[in-house]
Amino acid sequence: MSTRRIGMNIIKDKCTACGKCVNNCYRGAIRKDADGKYVVDPATCDDCTMLSEPFCARSCTDQAVDGGCLYAGVLSRDLDPRPRIRVSNLQYFVGAMGFEGVEYYRNRMDLIRITHAKAYVNPNLEIVIARGLDDFCWGCPRKKEQEHMDANVESDVNTEALTGLKPNQAIRYWDALKMCKEKLSPEVFRTKTNIEEQYIKVYEAALKGG
Fold this sequence. Notes:
Blueprint: E1 8-10, H1 20-23, E2 30-32, E3 38-40, H2 55-59, E4 65-67, E5 84-86, H3 90-98, H4 109-121, E6 126-130, H5 146-163, E7 170-172, H6 173-183, H7 186-192, H8 197-207
Parallel strand pairs: 5-6
Antiparallel strand pairs: 1-4, 2-3, 6-7
């Protein structure tokens, strides 16, 4: 398989103009053409250099996005289906296990519940460690803000150092949560990260069994 970055391309005959690719492009590189179909601006698209896979292709349910990143001529259906989770976001998966009703998790619970369910059905389910952007970021407009992205990367680099996890590392889901519980104590969050206290308290409650 070629590792040359060939850029992203939207196949017009397959594009239904649903807009998922636009919502998930953190570079704002996708726009509509005169025919009402979406196209990629090659001058703006960076082939998702922060990711091992392109967000537009991962989000396209019509398999209309082709090319890009480490893939040559690969459609979205052929991309890695494993959940991509930032190390900095693992705490939310732990926190939700013991305190699902908390307000903060309301807009994240669908992804968390789906991942939990998959892991219960398949205890060997693997996730892939992401940096800067992960599956939580789909549809979030803030990923287009450079300051927000820089803060995400800084947080991930710091948390990766604390856990020993690496970007693009594949790890069993339950093992990742276990490492999070063991190495990211509430005290570590308070002294070595910039995570807000209200979220640390939720995490702490989960560790104590809710």
